[in-house]
Design brief:
The protein is mostly helical. It folds into 2 domains: about 60 residues; about 120 residues, no CATH class. About 85% of the residues lie in helices and about 0% in strands. It is built from 9 helices and no strands. Helix 3 crosses helix 8 and helix 5 runs antiparallel to helix 8. The longest helix has about 55 residues.
Length: about 180
Amino acid sequence: MKKSLLVIAIASIILVLIAKLVGGSGLVLTGLEKAWSTAVQSFLMLVVSFMVIGQLHVLLTKEKLDKWLGKYSGIKGILISALAGGFFPGGPYIYYPFARTLADKGMPFYILIAFLFGKNIYDFSRIPMEASLVDPKVALIRLLITLLIPIISGLLAKRLFEHRSVEDDLAREGE
């Protein structure tokens, strides 16, 4: 059993016990009903997301990625990866498996870091909602303040882990 599954299972058991103590069996059943409803709603998104990931595995070969990264290594690769992350659609069900696919193909660690930071910090699809619900000035200020974070993170990862690939880390995790 993977460590992450074990940790979540333990957390679930603890929360069920707390719900039982606080509200009895009714509260536990309400929580389980909400969990089932969320699982049913998420199922279709998961299936479609994994179909996309499966096609990416087939279409994005290691040779194509090496050729692409050869052209766009260093700061250029970091900038493109951060922007690609910001424009990448969907939530974690989509972009984490996508990042894993790229990692499996030998993507340099610093490119992956820039992509993940770009997705989580830029997320350009969020800007219209943020501007309309909060304030356009606030959305612009937030974007400007955080603009360099994915780039700095990619550069820092390149500097600290230049000769480290994600494949090395994944191999160690699998042991």
